[in-house]
């Protein structure tokens, strides 16, 4: 140990004198306070020499404290304050080291460190102890003593004399030294009390440190108590289990398989498991048999093996092979939907020729209420398979699909494996509902996890994180549903066969209501035995005046309300006449509640078989109240600056009115109606197109130089975007400039370009149906969409007039009255 390679700690150190000069011993990770008796071990040669030198004189030494653990500390490695101590006892150990017992005398500043006689020496200056404590210090001393009493109760290992000495301490310095000696704190924290001069600050810090230490010990004691209690409970259970085993042995009824391993082994061997799965299961079973039944891992392994044995390995239902029977089931439950039905029948036909055909992965896309989910159930019925449905709406955790790894507490397989366990067959029809409503966050992307599930090339070896073995999903027929395809990730969309299920026409809704909805609601409301009919005009009134949708969900809700009203009125009349009254008219008031009962109060069954009611259009308002939707006035619009476009939404098609106003200004283009970027660009293109073709349309090329143009697309609160409103904006803008209204009753759709092209659009069927619902029977569409017209129902094609245009100029000539541009 060398201490001469650095300069002294203080430049203004005093000259050496024998009075304040002592041998120096550097201590690592040990702080010795005045008034305390503490042992330490000395092994470094220079330290042993310093101790021997002290023993030759008055046995006093200077204890300096290191800032680090260096074996050869320099003066810079020592704290500037140390402790003068007196050696009480020395014990030589067999390895040559010393055990030294010292008593701290006082704190002192290190003035100079130097080498003399081959050892370190120090010149020091004692730090004088202050006089009697002030009132504040006395108060702090009382607080510290109270806290230490509490500390001694918590620790329970402190000798009684230590507590007594601390109670007797009359000076702050003595109290601090005694408490810190018996307090388990890090050495750097203790050094703060050695180096700090102000006793008031030292006392405040001590009070805080002592209180914090008491809180930590209390917390540890509480935790240890709870752990000890649990351990005692576990030991008690173990002891009782061992006793139970001995009792059962004496009775001759010993259970030789407390872990249930034999039962699980029988299940595993009885199943037709793939080789990899069987190997994994038997390996885990072997681990289970070696564990104590009460151990936590035993429960985890037992649950895992139960999941393995409960899955339908090689178990499948026999498919229906009758095309006629399948077609009848599909037609019985759903009207139209020819494309989807034909795809299912194709699968059944091919399945008869190729038994091991992989299940198709279909996606039914269309507006709400068009029968996507119920069609999936009908497909399962037509194929004679089990039906499973899980909703993916709002799912944002990958573990919902793949499961959690079994190392996690409470881990389970994902929804795919859980559902197959419930189905008890490996070839069900599996409906993944609302696949477009999934999202992702920090827990992973469930859409990415579905890539393996919905890929025919990969799903034969699908591995759930919990199972850790592959399960064959290739025999499952996956069907997904979505309102819109835009929200589905492209890689996922690429793996699915898209089957569009567009909205229904009024006539299709009429057929659906007559064939399916009314009989179903009569049965659900318990009045199916009565003779209740509803004429076509009544159903059409509900469709046109009380619903505005592409599907039939709201239509079913309204028809259900009509039938509930009839049911209630029938019950009331029946009970009021003592069961002898036959009702032949129906008239209800708007404020009546929609409740219906099947029995009167005395428990007698009610017979409504003689009830005969025919609902007409004039009676609908009595059941449903005032009309919610009125016929559109778009057909009669004659104002200039107005045009009617068509838009597609995930809820179906809708009309999109566009309004344009010109007024004096500085040539600004103002766009309102919560328009997206694409629609804003369409407005700019329309403006540029009209300027560049001003001569053709007989308008002033500088028409916007001193006028502002305001384009508004109602309704203002609904976000809108897409390019297909380009022709509508162009027509409305030209109408406003020329102050000439468009022809009446025309709806339009199409994307425009600056070079006079009218580009094709998507969602034509939904858009045309929207026009038809709003009594707009003339539609202008791009020439390249002409082929899509064949997808429209025959009655729509017959009742609608179509303009097919390939250029913007041609389209505008058809939209404006003849001679407008001459």
Any overview of this molecule?
With 822 residues, the chain is α/β, with parallel strands linked by helices. 41% of the residues lie in helices and 17% in strands. The chain contains 26 helices and 24 strands. The strands form 6 sheets. A 7-stranded mixed sheet has the order 18-19-17-16-20-23-24. It is elongated, with a radius of gyration of 46 Å. The protein starts with 20 loop residues before the first strand and ends in a 7-residue tail after the last helix. The model is unreliable at 1-18 and 580-604 (pLDDT under 50). ATP binds at residues 366-373.
Keywords, separated by commas or semicolons:
17% strand; alpha/beta; five-stranded mixed barrel; Archaeosine Trna-guanine Transglycosylase, Chain: A, domain 4; 822 residues; 6 domains; Methane Monooxygenase Hydroxylase, Chain G, domain 1; 26 helices
Number of domains: 6
Task: Report the end-to-end length measured between terminal Cα atoms.
Answer: 111 Å
For this structure, the CATH topology of the largest domain is Ribosomal Protein S5, domain 2
Radius of gyration: 46 Å
Number of strands: 24
H/I helix tally: 26
Main sheet summary: 7 strands, mixed
Q: Strand fraction band?
A: 15-25%
Fraction of helical residues: 40-55%
Overall shape: elongated
* Order of strands, widest sheet: 18-19-17-16-20-23-24
Overall residue-averaged pLDDT value? 83
